[in-house]
Write a structure and sequence with these properties.
Blueprint (H helix, E strand, L loop, with lengths): L1 E4 L5 E9 L9 E2 L3 E15 L2 E5 L3 E5 L4 E3 L5 E11 L2 E3 L4 E3 L1 E3 L2 H15 L6 H15 L8 H10 L8 H8 L3 H12 L3 H19 L4 H7 L5 H12 L3 H16 L1
Antiparallel strand pairs: 1-9, 1-10, 2-8, 3-7, 4-5, 4-6, 4-7, 4-8, 6-11
């Protein structure tokens, strides 16, 4: 499942509480922002790129930028907070907030009201508004339980990114067959152990690419990839850029910030 990458910066745009009238429809639009919807009463209905969506009380939904939303069916007088923001998206992983889920309205009510108030305060600094968004995202994010079997496997892998990896390693360490290991990971993380390990290695490679001047080939090998070509293929698939282009983009961004 796709979601917001919480390892990357998230930028607040604006926010407000919204109360629909009876029979009111969602607006037809293509929004350039990501939009977090937190519904606490009624049901919000809309189509997103031709797929019908319903968001009920205690549910959140993140409308992804660039998609077409249409209010084909009337909503059931929903009350909700919406937040326009900008973020990077990734497939589900330990650091990704899925695009839909549930939330504790009683526990978040005060934060939602404060977010609405601060958003409409023209003198409130962007820092405070962004802090409220991060507070909400933190409340919505649920990392895998540390004591779950899959969580223990994940920690085991995290300490061995640079070492050779195979499913047999997990099977021997945790005394499960391959099918059961894969099932546990799929249920907890939405991916296989091999894909999980590749994402860990890519994350470490991205860090080294940003903070060191080491060659891409040496970084790939130090992060556990068997070859540069294998690293290149996985990196391109994840980021939509070659390692060379990605690194240069980050360097340009840092130079711009310094200027």
């Amino acid at each position: 499942m796709l979601g917001v990458d919480l390892n990357r910066p998230v930028f607040f745009r604006f926010s407000s509480l919204r109360f629909f009238r009876a029979g009111e429809h969602h607006i037809d639009r293509v929004c350039e922002d990501d939009v977090l919807l937190l519904v606490y009463e009624g049901v919000l209905r809309f189509d997103e790129d031709g797929v019908s969506r319903e968001v009920g009380p205690g549910e959140y939904y993140i409308q992804r930028h660039g998609l077409t939303q249409r209010g084909i069916e009337p909503s059931d007088a929903p009350k909700y907070l919406y937040i326009h923001f900008s973020a990077e998206w990734r497939e589900e992983a330990p650091s990704v907030l899925p695009f839909r889920g549930s939330f504790d309205y009683a526990g978040l009510r005060q934060t939602l009201e404060e977010t609405d108030r601060i958003s409409h305060d023209g003198e409130a600094p962007l820092l405070l508004k962004t802090a409220k968004l991060y507070e909400i995202l933190s409340a919505l994010y649920s990392p895998p339980p540390a004591d779950s079997v899959a969580g223990k496997m994940a920690r085991f892998l995290a300490g061995r990114c640079a070492e050779p990896f195979s499913l047999d390693l997990l099977c021997r360490e945790f005394h499960f067959c391959k099918n059961h290991v894969i099932h546990l990971f799929q249920k907890e993380f939405g991916m296989t152990p091999v894909r999980y390990m590749n994402l860990l290695r890519l994350k470490e490679a991205e860090y080294r690419m940003e903070v060191t001047s080491d060659s891409l080939e040496s970084i790939a090998l130090r992060c556990g990839f068997p070859s540069y070509s294998h690293f290149y293929k996985l990196f391109l698939r994840k980021n939509g850029l070659s390692p060379e282009a990605w690194r240069e983009e980050r360097r340009i961004g840092k130079r711009t910030l310094r200027e």
